From TrEMBL:
It holds the Pfam family UvrC_RNaseH_dom. The gene is uvrC. GO terms for cellular component: cytoplasm; excinuclease repair complex. Belongs to the UvrC family. This is UvrABC system protein C. GO terms for molecular function: DNA binding; excinuclease ABC activity. It is found in: Cytoplasm. The UvrABC repair system catalyzes the recognition and processing of DNA lesions. UvrC both incises the 5' and 3' sides of the lesion. The N-terminal half is responsible for the 3' incision and the C-terminal half is responsible for the 5' incision. The keyword Cytoplasm applies. InterPro entries: GIY-YIG_endonuc (IPR000305), GIY-YIG_endonuc_sf (IPR035901), GIY-YIG_UvrC_Cho (IPR047296), RuvA_2-like (IPR010994), UVR_dom_sf (IPR036876), UvrABC_protein_C (IPR050066), UvrC (IPR004791), UvrC_RNase_H_dom (IPR001162).
């Protein structure tokens, strides 16, 4: 479509809540979004200046717009979610997780069977779940089998067929696992009592079953039926043991969904905890691939709608870490303290653990993706114009003002590139002057790189505060590199990051990967510099000791060290061993010096 037609479409959009769809020139759907006000939201794409590259590309590709008006924001959320799942547009977030989950089915039949399945058939049967783990399903079915005697056969147990004596009891009856409803040995009413108790247990309500079993145990005890009472006692113990293992949070908190989000530059992880009768009955984390720098609020809204649909949640209240819009049908709470806050913190912890596991796996399976994610994160955290694929960090080392040296360490794609590390002996500065030393080494480093036409780094890190940063900037100015390379200083005490011409430092989250890489760079530069400094001092100390011997010059010292490797070995050498290397005259002088 031509541009004027697109402008007309924008002008005629309604000021109502709804869903909009962007299409390219070939009619392929690019993006689906929701809005409180369709006209304002869609117009903002074409009137706003977009910083993010992908959003700019999206806007250029839009050739036509379609919209659907709905009654409320809740309807818009649901419709948006369904359209994204159906069309999977290129610029919408990708919800990673399409596997089928197991359910527990109570079959719609006389004397219902209870079993696990991955297929939900709309035949009037009841389905509980879906469960995120087959282990949970197996544990629940084992519990049910231990508490209640249910049939496992697939016979049609209609009243007429039972009365006509069509079926005979099987081995399960003789083993005591079934009460034989196929021969009319168990009434439908008695069987359904067990089914009702199973429904409660699957919903997380153990209370009624425990009360019922305890009443039965007391009845059998009073009637002197001690064996039957013991069987019921064992069932109570099984039920109480299972209940203790399930995470009891607070009996007052019932039928609540808890959601939290943890995100980085490329992915978001949304954790979902479902509470029923005071205990957590489900935990699931959804991974979301970002496409257009979506905010955590937008991502959490999308994920909540998807997860509640997927797991068929009907809870009327949800807990979240910040305010979101889900319409009027659901109560949204942001807990600040107490048990509710503890549950939310548990959800956040689950999301963080899931993210860490994913990152560890990606690091092993796809190191390039890991590096790309780190670089994108650093670019965002440090407010850089480009990803810092090549970083260099400088550190000065002088102890008590002696032998001033400097070190430059290099990281490429977030990892040390040791072959590119460089040591510097300070040449032009007299005495301990960190600022002047920093100015000298930065100048020498980049003057040489420019002369040799080497590729320059995207980021320079100076170990020190404003003073060292200012000194390094003088050298960049002299080389006309000020605007070509980003440069920051890191102060040791509070891990403050200083930027040129900005008096206010940047503080990164202490757990952020960006800060960890900067600290790693700084520590590596310090280690490398100290190592060089020690070598220089020890070499100097060795040479000075030998030079104090009258009549022993530099050439003699070199010959001795080549042969004996250390001053200690020279000191302990026999006279004839020394004579073999430097002759009798000099050997006598050295031997007498160490054997006074």
């Amino acid at each position: 479509m031509s541009k004027p037609t697109l402008e007309i479409q924008l002008k005629t959009l309604p000021n109502e809540p709804g869903v909009y769809q962007y299409f390219d020139a070939d009619g392929i759907i690019l993006y689906v979004g929701k809005a409180k006000n369709l006209k304002k939201r869609v117009s903002s794409y074409f009137t706003k200046q977009h910083d993010y590259g992908k959003t700019k590309v999206l806007v250029k590709k839009i050739a036509s717009i379609k919209h659907i008006v709905v009654n409320s924001e809740t309807d818009a959320l649901l419709l948006e979610n369904n359209l994204i799942k159906k069309h999977q547009p290129r610029y919408n977030v990708l919800l990673k997780d399409d596997k089928s989950y197991p359910w527990i089915c109570i079959k719609n039949e006389r004397f219902p069977r209870v079993f696990s399945t991955r297929r939900v058939i709309k035949d009037g049967s009841e389905y509980f779940g879906p469960y995120t783990s087959m282990k949970t399903v197996t544990t629940l079915l084992d519990l049910i089998k231990g508490l209640f005697k249910l049939r496992t056969c697939n016979y049609d147990l209609s009243e007429t067929k039972i009365d006509s004596g069509k079926y005979k009891v099987c081995l399960e009856y003789h083993l005591g696992n079934c009460k034989g409803p196929c021969e009319g040995l168990q009434t439908l009413e008695d069987y359904n009592e067990g089914i009702n108790a199973i429904r409660d247990i699957l919903k997380g309500n153990f209370k009624d079953s425990l009360i019922q079993f305890k009443q039965q145990m007391v009845h059998f005890s009073k009637s002197m039926q001690f064996e039957d009472a013991q069987v019921i006692k064992e069932k109570i113990e099984v039920l109480e043991n299972y209940q203790a293992k399930s995470t009891i949070v607070n009996p007052k908190i019932s039928n609540v969904d808890v959601f939290s989000i943890v995100s980085d530059e490329s992915y978001a992880y949304v954790n979902f905890l479902q509470l029923s009768f005071g205990s957590i009955i489900r935990s699931h984390t959804l991974e979301i691939k970002k496409k257009l720098q979506e905010s955590d609020k937008d991502l959490l809204e999308i994920a909540i709608v998807e997860l509640r649909q997927r797991f068929h949640s009907k809870s009327k209240e949800i807990y979240v870490p910040f305010k979101i819009n889900l319409g009027k049908k659901v109560k949204v709470s942001v807990p600040q303290l107490g048990d509710k806050k503890h549950i939310l913190d548990l959800s956040i912890r689950n999301a963080k653990y899931h993210r860490l596991e994913q990152l560890k796996q990606v690091k092993i399976v796809d190191p390039d993706r890991h590096a790309n994610r780190i670089m994108a994160q650093m670019k965002s955290d440090l407010r850089l114009k480009e990803e810092p694929r090549h970083i260099e960090c400088f550190d000065n080392s002088n102890i008590q003002g002696t032998h001033p040296v400097a070190a430059c360490v290099v990281f490429k794609n977030g990892k040390p590139s040791k072959k590119d590390y460089r040591h510097f002996n300070i040449k032009t500065v007299e005495g301990p002057d960190d600022f002047a030393s920093m100015e000298e080494v930065v100048y020498r480093r980049y003057k040489r790189m420019l002369d040799e036409k080497q590729s320059l780094p995207q980021l320079i890190i100076i170990d020190g505060g404003k003073g060292q940063l200012s000194s390094a900037l003088k050298s960049l100015d002299a080389l006309q590199l000020r605007k070509k390379i980003a440069i920051i200083g890191i102060a040791k005490r509070l891990e403050e990051l200083f930027y040129p011409d900005d008096p206010i430092p940047l503080y990164l989250d202490k757990k952020s990967e960006t800060l960890k890489i900067i600290q790693q760079l700084r520590n590596e530069a310090h280690r490398f510099g100290i190592e060089h400094h020690r070598n220089k001092r020890s070499k100097s100390a060795l040479n000075t000791e030998l030079e104090t011997i009258p009549g022993i010059g530099e050439k003699t010292i070199v010959e001795l060290l080549k042969e004996f490797k250390s001053v200690k070995r020279i000191a302990n050498a026999k006279l004839d061993e020394l004579e073999d290397v430097v002759g009798a005259s000099r050997a006598n002088k050295i031997y007498n010096y160490y054997h006074k």
